[in-house]
Design brief:
Strand content of chain A: under 5%
Distance between the termini of chain A: 38 Å
Number of domains of chain A: 1
Largest interface: A-B, 12 and 17 residues
Number of domains of chain B: 2
Radius of gyration of chain A: 17 Å
CATH class of chain A: Mainly Alpha
CATH class of the largest domain in chain B: Mainly Alpha
Oligomer: heterodimer
Shape of chain B: elongated
Structural class of chain A: mainly alpha
Number of strands of chain B: 7
Structural class of chain B: alpha+beta
Number of helices of chain A: 4
Largest sheet of chain B: 5 strands, mixed
Helix content of chain B: 25-40%
CATH topology of the largest domain in chain B: Fumarate Reductase Iron-sulfur Protein, Chain B, domain 2
Shape of chain A: elongated
CATH architecture of the largest domain in chain B: Orthogonal Bundle
Order of helices and strands of chain A: HHHH
Helix content of chain A: over 70%
CATH superfamily of the largest domain in chain B: Alpha-helical ferredoxin
CATH architecture of chain A: Up-down Bundle
Distance between the termini of chain B: 58 Å
Radius of gyration of chain B: 20 Å
Chain lengths: ~110, ~230
């Protein structure tokens, strides 16, 4: 990550993803409240639609990016020993990537299955 | 009126401690007057103060958990026992006297002076009333340190994060129509620490005895940075 990415870009990404997360959550809540899917099949069909699955995938990545910027900030503030900080940051990256791949798998299964 | 005052003399005390004092409070008395009374009771008691009217910025202390200037804090506003401590996060030199070197280093780091590239004109560099207005709420800072020492981000990274005071000053010069080094100033603020350790906690705004708003100044810097990078 360049020096530039470390400051301004991280800040902008945090804000942009926050906007998308907010909008998507409203959209999701709206659907669940106004027209709740009654069966697993209906739920899967909805989630498997091209628009919803793309938007969900984008949501997952926005969430991971947002979480990364936030956790990175916390680690930078509170964890001073550089080795420990690097270790924790790597651990967070692995966990976030794992979550991302898992979400992708869920969405693919919803679409194919 | 009851006071609990932070005491620490590194030559004699192993640990800092709180000492109780009783001060005869009179109408209109400020905290600084009470500290002066305490000093007459115990001459070894140390604190910084000078002008006594909120201009010099010397007597910033932590009172009942909030950073304030002792000279403009009326005793009538304070709950007893009044707990007076030095600024949090700063190394204590003695009693309420703290080492503010890092704070002033951060101030110096933002180059708090006008930078001109054009040759200086024979006369003053004129500003329109609107250009001058942009400096209101920025130039009034007296560098007392109440804001930066109440900022958690400055507690954790006082060596790398500029802190609210220095960033307010940075914006004061970025906003000045006579300054010609905006790009260099912004480049200097890049990276994750100097500017971007601010998490908009806004303790600085609450603490400022001059009612200035460093958080807004920091937001303005970020916006200008964004504008210039698109």
């Amino acid at each position: 990550m360049s020096r530039r990415a470390a400051g301004l870009k991280a800040w902008i990404w945090q804000r942009l993803t926050a906007i998308y997360l907010g909008l998507f959550i409203l959209f999701l809540l709206g659907r669940l409240v106004l027209d709740p899917p009654l069966h697993v099949a209906e739920w899967r069909g909805w989630l498997g639609g091209p628009l919803v699955s793309t938007a969900s995938l984008l949501f997952v990545f926005a969430l991971l990016l947002h979480a990364w910027v936030g956790v990175r900030d916390i680690l930078m503030d509170y964890v001073r020993p550089i080795a420990l900080r690097a270790g924790l940051m790597s651990l967070v990256i692995v966990i976030l990537l794992g979550c991302g791949l898992w979400a992708v798998e869920i969405l693919i299964v919803a679409r194919v299955g | 009126m009851k006071f609990r005052v932070f005491r620490y003399n590194p030559d004699e005390d192993e640990q800092p401690y709180l000492q109780d004092f009783e001060v005869a409070a009179e109408r209109g008395m400020m905290l600084r007057d009470a500290l002066l009374q305490i000093k007459t009771q115990d001459e070894g008691f140390s604190f910084r103060h000078s002008c006594g009217e909120g201009v010099c910025g010397s007597d910033g202390v932590n009172v009942n958990g909030e950073n304030k200037l002792a000279c403009i804090t009326p005793l009538a506003e304070l709950k007893e026992p009044v707990v007076v401590r030095p600024f949090p996060g700063r190394p204590v030199i003695r009693d309420l006297v703290v080492d503010m070197s890092q704070f002033f280093q951060q101030y110096r780091a933002v180059q708090p002076w006008l930078i001109r590239k054009d040759p200086l004109p024979e006369h003053e560099i004129l500003q329109s009333p609107e250009e001058r207005e942009r400096l209101d709420g920025l130039y009034e800072c007296i560098l007392c340190g109440c804001c930066s020492t109440s900022c958690p981000s400055f507690w954790w990274n006082p060596d790398r994060f500029h802190g609210p005071q220095a960033l307010l000053t940075a914006w004061r010069f970025l906003a000045d129509s006579r300054d010609q080094a905006a790009d260099e100033r912004l480049d200097e603020l890049e990276g994750p620490y100097k500017l971007f350790r601010c998490h908009t906690i806004m303790s600085c705004v609450e603490a400022c005895p001059k009612h200035l708003n460093p958080t807004r100044a920091i937001g303005n810097i970020k916006n200008l940075m964004l504008k210039k990078s698109i």
